[in-house]
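Deliverable D5.2: sample structural annotation.
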Amino acid sequence: MAELKTKKTELSVEDFIKTIPDEQKQKDAFTIVGLMEKATKAKAKMWGTAIIGFGDRRLKYESGRELDWFVMGFSPRKQNFAFYITGTVEKQQALLKKLGKYKTGKGCLYINKLEEVDMAVLKEIIHKGLVK
């Protein structure tokens, strides 16, 4: 079985965020770190070179495969923020309708800028992402 490439590292989250060229995107990233640390009660950790994850859990697939992963996380990509919050796309449709400007992919929520969304709704999505 192939080894998972994205693993928790000891790289600095703060240093990573400071490499983001767009100053507003940096501020948004630090805001998201604060929201997710508060919700998960876990410190931000780098996963690979571009994902910021919070907390630890063991994923078990029907195939029997197991891997270590984060409880929730995000990646400040050039074009948007990709949020990795379990169940958001499938189970939080009512909240997503109130969020503001966003897109979804398979299991991911994409937001361009925090100013384009309702922060209270985003906080609720993050909180509900902790419930299994």
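Annotation notes: The longest strand covers residues 72-76. Strands lie at 44-47, 51-54, 57-60, 66-69, 72-76, 81-85, 103-104, 109-111.
The annotation will be released with the project's public dataset once the embargo ends.
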